[in-house]
Amino acid sequence: MSGLTVKRLVAGYGGEPVLREVDFEVPEGGLLAVLGPSGCGKTTLLRVLAGFHPVSSGEVWLGGRQLTSEVPPERRGIGIVPQEGALFPHLSVAGNVGFGLRRGERGERVDELLDLVGLSGFGARMPGELSGGQAQRVALARALAPRPGVVLLDEPFSALDAGLREELRADVRATLKAADATALLVTHDQEEALGIADHVVVLRDGAVAQFARPQTIYTSPADLGVALFVGEAVTFPGVAGAGRVETPLGTLPTSGAGPGTVLLRPEQLILGPTGVPSTVDDVLFHGHDATVLLRLADGTQVRARVQGRISVRAGDSVTVSVDGPALFFEDTP
Amino acid sequence: MHRAAPALTSLSLLVAAAAVLPLAYLAVRSFERGGGVVWDVLARTRTAELALRSLSLAVAVTAACLVLGVLSAWLVVRSDLPGRRAFGVLLVLPLAVPSYVAGFTWISVLPDLTGFAGAFVVLTLVSYPYVLLPVAAALRTADPAVEEVARSLGRTSRQVFFSVTLRQIRPSALAGGLLVALYVLSDFGAVSLMRYEAFTLGIYTSYRATFDRTPAAILGLILVLLAIALTLGERRARGVVAHRGRRQPLTVPLGRARVPALAGSVALILLTLGVPVASLVWWLVEGTSTFSLADVLATTGNTVAVSAFGALLTLLLALPVGILAARHQGRLARGVELASFAGHALPGITVGLALVFFGIRFAPALYQTMPMLAFAYAVLFLPLAVGAVRTGVAHAPPVLEDVSRSLGHGRLQTGLRVTVPLAAPGILAGTALVFLTCAKELPATLLLRPTGVDTLATELWTRTEVAAYAAAAPYAAVLLVVAAIPAVALDRFVGGER
């Protein structure tokens, strides 16, 4: 048993490959998020792993067994949770969860799983009587029931509203961990990917742009594209050298050398007693925090994220400093 | 994303070819003796007269249906007419009554109501729901905010009706109107019973009366071309969809118009449903001695057999096309589906005629046999069945099959446990509808029925032709019941959705 391993995987439709030499690993019991914009090949990756789309070249290994294109979906031991659940509308909740189990083992295992997803007593309901979040939980229980080697979740929270999404995200992570399941989740939502997974694969144009822990992806993105995709950013052009770079916010410590782009996260910009003078253009209040739009002396606008009580208003003059080092991405010739 | 299985594609292509076969053969048969003969037939005054009669009838009936359909749709959806929900159901019911049954009930009590006037009255009363239904749907889904904006800009509610509401429903009314015109042009039952020699009746008499059947083929081809033009027009008109609102439309108080509106609606229902039912009851009571129950039962048995055969064949042919259309979006799938819709434009009389010619020439063993008649039904009602298969299969989306396979079930088991249970109800309902539609079919049955096998429709028609009204009545009664079944089922279906 060694989880899921994908080696130099290539797949496509006819001419152009959609997946180009994809490599990653999910250790047993691990939760991997595949993050990428629409059209990056996420769906194709899921279809290839589940056995609905052939591999052009490369290898897929699950629990020490190689899954070639000849292994049909029903013999792979890979569970899927499609978008919006896709429950069988003609079967009850219990019928859905027990669908992949043999007749004899249904009763107890179904109860166990409904319990695990917090829906004990829902067995007799029909899918039409469930809310969106409940349907997703049933879909997860259904996929977990036959104890698959890995569960694939396809944008499982995209159809839910914001509050429910966060709650369900935590529940799904807890459920997967409690079931000791290996899981792979694809999403286009960076907050979701960084928030739920142990490891993240950033997929771009069918190739892996970065494969690392969530913190690493955020604090040390592989390139400017990944950095911009995984979070809000303040960027300036600059020339780095000797561990520092000149920016409109002052001279900042950084690595790299030569011309390139300086990147700061908005939460690195601190409004305080010292720093560069600037004017508040506007304040966008989010509840738990706020974004302050600042105009610097040279006219560039930057965003600062401010926690807690907001004491500034549009038109105020403030000073802004930078906390921590700046990321620097050298221009590629 | 998915590629269609080659077997599915080739089966669908075969069905599409079969569906356009009658039309193709009619063309071949028309030009068999050279373009000169075609020109001769075209140049005859009789041809021009037939065309003129059909077109003037179509124009008159369509105009009347537009007025009746738009008015009644507005009353049912937008006004505060008392009992408008019940009116909504009753006003649509006449759609199910076959034109020749309506024709029988009218001419048997008003024998002088023949010719243009008779055909006009009968066809208007059975086909105005073709306008009512799409217009009511458009009124229900139109965005009420547009009307509210017009009112807030200073228009009165009457002005809003003409400047805003009518424009919102215009595409739907146009599509409905073209459907009425197509129905009138293809109708054989009403015009033959009301003795109005329109194109369809002209084709039938020229086929029956003369030894040379080429003119009948040429006339049939002309009728098909007219029908195709109308069908294409209807498809285009239907394509224009009004903006959908998210709220219930506003109810407009009728005020002083309430009493006339109510009286008008009641009068329309009396004409469309009251007259047929009263006339039937009268003849049934009057003529108890003139018909034998055994005959009626035997004919009903024939009708059931013929229709079951037809519905089954139609379903078999519709399966590959419907599955292809539901699961694949390519140009091929669309082309095949379009070809299978030929029956929508083909008048029954021409399909019957084409298969008579085809059968005599290429399959004399099949001519006037059940399989040939069943094939005619299949060509005519393939659109109905393909639609049913398509929606049925759409209830079982591929993602559910994927889930089932990922849970350890193979293709066959997935089909049995997921696809069939989900798709079957819709497909069965569609097949039942085809069965009932076959049972009402007249012109093709008249031309192709096996010798000695009479259906309810042909019995009613032949007896009414010779003015044996009392003897015809029981057949009309059974047909009316047959016609009412889908209407009642449809109403329950629609009622269940609310």
UniProtKB/TrEMBL annotation, chain A:
GO molecular function: ATP binding
All copies of domain ABC transporter, residue ranges: 4-230
SMART domains on file: AAA
One Pfam family it belongs to: TOBE_2
InterPro entries: AAA+_ATPase, ABC_SmlMolc_Importer, ABC_transporter-like_ATP-bd, ABC_transporter-like_CS, ABC_transpr_FbpC, Mo/tungstate-bd_C_term_dom, P-loop_NTPase, Transp-assoc_OB_typ2
Keyword annotations: ATP-binding, Cell membrane, Ion transport, Iron, Iron transport, Membrane, Nucleotide-binding, Transport
Superkingdom to which the source organism belongs: Bacteria
CDD domains: ABC_Carb_Solutes_like
SUPFAM superfamilies recorded: MOP-like, P-loop containing nucleoside triphosphate hydrolases
Protein name: ABC transporter ATP-binding protein
